C-alpha cells in the first residue's frame, strides 16, 4: 500500500518500543489540569487525538514539586495520589492504541508566586517576582524530584516523560549565562551550567529503567541575549544522549524573547532549519516544531531530512483527526490551525480553559456534543460568514434540512478580507474547510441572494448571521475622495499615495497598517532578517543586531483613546503587531480628535494642538456596526429568529465568538 505521506506516516523504532508514525502532539496546557473534574475532560481530549492517529502525545506541563509550579494552584505531579488520578488519562489513550508522555516542567523564575527559585537571584522581565537562588541542597532535591515524578509517571501508565529544558524555564535558566551567575559547581563555565540538565536525565534514567521514553525539550535557539551558541547546543545534545535521552525535541525562543515564534505572522516551518543544524551530531531522533500545520509541510520537512519527527500542538486543537485524514489522503478535510492564538494561548494566559477558534469542541469534548436531532426541521441560515457556516454545518450534521443564504458571490464573510492581510493568509484555510463541509453535508447554498422576511416563512428555524458593515464616523469631509473604508480598500485594492492615515487602531486598523507597509516578495529569509534572527547561529542566542527597516510610505495609525496604540485584540500577539509597526516606521498616535478631511489631508487635535496630517489617503477603520435588519421583520410576522456573530454584537471582529455561537446554537436547536 502506497502511503500518501510516506515519511510522515512511517513508524519510528526506538529500540524498546515503536511509534506508529512520525507525529508528536506537542505539549499544550489546557487549563483542565487544575479544574474540577478536569482529568475526565482531559482523558476525553487526549483520547480523541489518540483515536485520530497521533504517534506520541505529550501532556501539558506538570511541576515535579511545589516551588516549580507556574502559579500557586498550577498542576503538580509528585505523589502516588497524582499517579492514580492520571490513570484516567493514560488508559483512555491506550484504549485507542496511542502512546503518551507526561511533561515535567519546573517554572523557575517564571513562577508567578513569591516562592520561585532559579539558578540565580535574577528577575525575569515577564515576572512580578524575583526568585531566590537555589542552594546546593535545593538543586539536589530538585533533581530527585524530577526522577521521582518520572517514576510515578511510569506507575501512572505513561509511556514516557518529556523534560522541559527550553522556553526559558528553570533548566534553561541554569544553562544560560543570562540567568546563571553562580560561582559554584553549577555555574561559571558552560560545562558547569549544563550539569543540572545532565544530572536530571541521569537520575531519571536510573529510576525508570531503559524501556521508558525520555524526551528532552532542548532550547536550540534561545533568541535572547546571553543565550547559547550553536556549538554549545551541540555539546549539550551529545551529553544528553550519553545520559540516556531517547528523543530530543526542539525548543525555540524563551518566553521573554521579543521575537514571534508561533503566531500566524510566522511563516510555516520557519524554524525547521534550526533542528537540521543538529542532524548528524547525535544518533537519537530529533523532533522539529513551530508552525507546521499541514501534512504537506510536515512531509517536506521529513523527506528533506531536516528532522526525524514533527511536533504539532495547536493543529490537534483544530482537528483531532489530522493524522487519520492524512492517512486517508484527505488533507482537504483537515480543519487547519490558523495560528491565531485567540482561543488557546490567549485563554491560558488569562487563566481560562483553552479551546480553538476554528474548533470550539477542543477541550469541550464532553460538553459540546453533536448528537442527532429528534425533530428534524427546516433551518434557514442567513449569512455565509464563519458564524453562519459553523451553524449550518453543525445543524446539518445533526440531521436538519439547512439552506444557507449569502448576499455575495462566495462564502467566508470577513475571512475573505482577513486572508488578504499579510500574516493572515492562513484564514483562507478555514474558508476552504467550512466550504467543503457545507458541500459534504449537501447543504443548499443560495449565493447572490438578498433575503426578506417573506422568503423565510416556510422555515421552522431562522438564524441571522449577517455579520457587520464598517462604521463610518461623523467626521466633517468623511465623503471626501481621500477617505476609504477598510472593506473597500481590501476588496478593491486602490493605489494608495505615499502618505496614509489610518483612523482607528483596533485589530482592523493594525491589519490595514501592516498590509500597506508590507514589503513585496517577502520570503522566509527576509522575515528572519527583519526579526534579527541569525541563521548561521554563530551569535549567542541566535540574535543579530536588530536591523532597521525603512518603510516605502509614511503611515500614521490613530486612535481616540489615550495611551498605548496598536495593542491589538490578542493578549499573546498584541506586542508582535506593535513591534512590527514600530520597525516599519509607522507613527502611533493616541488621544486624537478628528476634526475634518479635506484636500490638505486629515485635520486632528492632539494634546490640545491642531495638526494637519498631509495624507494622500485616509483609511477608515473605526469599528463595525451589526447588520440584522431582518430580525424586526421576522418578529412582526410571528417568527423568533436566532441572532449570532457580528449580527448580534459588532464590537471588535470576533471570529472565536462567532464560530462558537454557531456550533452552540446548532447543538441547542
TrEMBL record:
Its cofactor is [4Fe-4S] cluster; FMN. Residues 8-332 form the NADH:flavin oxidoreductase/NADH oxidase N-terminal domain. GO terms for molecular function: 2,4-dienoyl-CoA reductase (NADPH) activity; FMN binding; iron-sulfur cluster binding; metal ion binding. InterPro entries: Aldolase_TIM, FAD/NAD-bd_sf, FAD/NAD-binding_dom, NADH:flavin_oxidoreductase, OxRdtase_FMN_N. SUPFAM superfamilies: FAD/NAD(P)-binding domain, FMN-linked oxidoreductases, Nucleotide-binding domain. Coiled coil: none annotated. Transmembrane segments: none annotated. One of its GO terms (biological process) is fatty acid beta-oxidation, unsaturated, even number, reductase/isomerase pathway. It comes from the Bacteria. The keyword Glycoprotein does not apply. It holds the Pfam family Oxidored_FMN. Residues 378-635 form the FAD/NAD(P)-binding domain. Keywords: Flavoprotein, FMN, Iron, Iron-sulfur, Metal-binding, Oxidoreductase. In the N-terminal section; belongs to the NADH:flavin oxidoreductase/NADH oxidase family. This is NADPH-dependent 2,4-dienoyl-CoA reductase. The lineage of its organism: Bacteria, Pseudomonadati, Pseudomonadota, Gammaproteobacteria, Vibrionales.
Amino acid at each position: 500500500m502506497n502511503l500518501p505521506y510516506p515519511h510522515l506516516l512511517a513508524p519510528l523504532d526506538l529500540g524498546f518500543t515503536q511509534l506508529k508514525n512520525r507525529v508528536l502532539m506537542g505539549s499544550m496546557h489546557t487549563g483542565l489540569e487544575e479544574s474540577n473534574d478536569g482529568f475526565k475532560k482531559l482523558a476525553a481530549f487526549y483520547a480523541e487525538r489518540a483515536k485520530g492517529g497521533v504517534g506520541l502525545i505529550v501532556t501539558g506541563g506538570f511541576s515535579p514539586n511545589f516551588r516549580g509550579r507556574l502559579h500557586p494552584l498550577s498542576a503538580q505531579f509528585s505523589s502516588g495520589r497524582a499517579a492514580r488520578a492520571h490513570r484516567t488519562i493514560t488508559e483512555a489513550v491506550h484504549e485507542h492504541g496511542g502512546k503518551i508522555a507526561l511533561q515535567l516542567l519546573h517554572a523557575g523564575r517564571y513562577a508567578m508566586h513569591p516562592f520561585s527559585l532559579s539558578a540565580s537571584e535574577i528577575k525575569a522581565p515577564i515576572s512580578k517576582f524575583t526568585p531566590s537562588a537555589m542552594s546546593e541542597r535545593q538543586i539536589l532535591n530538585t533533581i530527585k524530584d524530577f526522577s521521582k515524578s518520572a517514576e510515578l509517571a511510569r506507575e501512572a501508565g505513561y509511556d514516557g516523560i518529556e523534560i522541559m529544558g527550553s522556553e526559558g524555564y528553570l533548566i534553561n535558566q541554569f544553562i544560560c549565562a543570562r540567568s546563571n551567575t553562580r560561582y559554584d559547581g553549577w555555574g561559571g563555565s558552560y560545562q558547569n551550567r549544563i550539569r543540572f540538565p545532565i544530572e536530571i536525565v541521569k537520575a531519571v534514567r536510573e529510576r525508570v529503567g531503559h524501556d521508558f521514553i525520555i524526551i528532552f525539550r532542548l532550547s536550540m535557539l534561545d533568541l535572547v541575549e546571553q543565550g547559547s551558541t550553536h556549538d554549545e547546543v551541540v555539546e549539550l545534545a551529545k551529553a544528553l544522549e550519553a545520559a540516556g535521552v531517547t528523543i530530543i525535541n526542539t525548543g525555540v525562543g524563551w518566553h521573554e524573547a521579543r521575537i514571534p515564534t508561533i503566531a500566524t505572522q510566522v511563516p510555516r516551518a520557519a524554524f525547521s532549519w534550526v533542528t537540521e543544524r543538529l542532524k548528524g551530531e547525535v544518533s537519537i531522533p530529533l523532533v522539529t516544531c513551530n508552525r507546521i500545520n499541514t501534512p504537506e509541510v510536515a512531509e517536506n520537512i521529513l523527506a528533506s531530512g531536516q528532522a526525524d519527527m514533527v511536533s504539532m500542538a495547536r493543529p490537534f486543537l483544530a482537528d483531532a483527526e489530522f493524522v487519520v485524514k492524512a492517512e486517508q489522503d484527505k488533507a482537504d478535510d483537515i480543519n487547519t490551525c490558523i495560528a491565531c492564538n485567540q482561543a488557546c494561548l490567549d485563554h491560558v494566559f488569562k487563566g481560562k480553559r483553552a479551546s480553538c477558534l476554528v474548533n470550539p469542541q477542543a477541550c469541550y469534548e464532553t460538553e459540546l456534543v453533536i448528537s442527532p436531532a429528534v425533530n428534524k426541521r427546516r433551518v434557514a441560515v442567513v449569512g455565509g460568514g464563519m458564524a453562519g457556516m459553523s451553524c449550518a454545518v453543525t445543524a446539518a450534521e445533526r440531521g436538519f434540512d439547512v439552506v444557507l443564504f449569502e448576499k455575495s458571490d462566495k462564502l467566508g464573510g470577513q475571512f475573505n478580507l482577513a486572508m488578504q492581510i499579510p500574516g493572515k493568509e492562513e484564514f483562507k484555510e478555514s474558508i476552504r474547510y467550512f466550504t467543503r463541509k457545507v458541500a459534504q453535508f449537501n447543504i443548499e447554498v443560495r449565493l447572490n441572494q438578498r433575503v426578506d422576511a417573506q422568503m423565510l416563512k416556510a422555515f421552522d428555524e431562522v438564524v441571522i448571521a449577517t455579520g457587520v458593515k464598517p462604521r463610518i464616523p461623523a467626521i466633517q469631509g468623511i465623503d471626501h475622495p481621500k477617505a476609504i473604508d477598510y472593506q473597500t480598500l481590501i476588496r478593491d485594492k486602490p493605489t494608495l499615495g505615499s502618505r496614509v492615515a489610518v483612523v482607528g487602531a483596533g485589530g482592523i486598523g493594525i491589519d490595514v497598517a501592516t498590509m500597506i507597509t508590507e514589503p513585496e516578495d517577502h520570503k522566509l529569509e527576509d522575515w528572519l532578517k527583519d526579526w534579527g534572527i541569525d541563521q548561521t547561529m554563530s551569535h549567542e542566542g541566535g540574535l543579530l543586531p536588530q536591523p532597521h527597516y525603512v518603510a516605502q510610505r509614511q503611515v500614521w495609525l490613530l486612535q481616540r483613546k489615550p495611551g498605548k496604540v496598536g495593542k491589538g485584540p490578542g493578549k499573546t500577539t498584541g506586542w508582535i503587531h506593535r513591534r512590527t509597526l514600530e520597525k516599519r516606521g509607522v507613527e502611533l498616535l493616541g488621544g486624537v480628535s478628528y476634526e475634518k478631511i479635506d484636500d490638505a489631508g486629515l485635520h486632528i487635535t492632539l494634546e490640545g494642538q491642531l495638526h494637519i496630517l498631509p495624507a494622500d489617503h485616509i483609511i477608515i477603520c473605526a469599528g463595525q456596526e451589526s447588520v440584522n435588519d431582518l430580525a424586526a421583520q421576522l418578529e412582526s410576522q410571528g417568527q423568533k429568529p436566532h441572532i449570532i456573530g457580528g449580527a448580534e454584537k459588532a464590537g471588535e471582529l470576533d471570529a472565536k465568538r462567532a464560530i462558537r455561537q454557531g456550533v452552540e446554537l446548532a447543538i441547542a436547536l
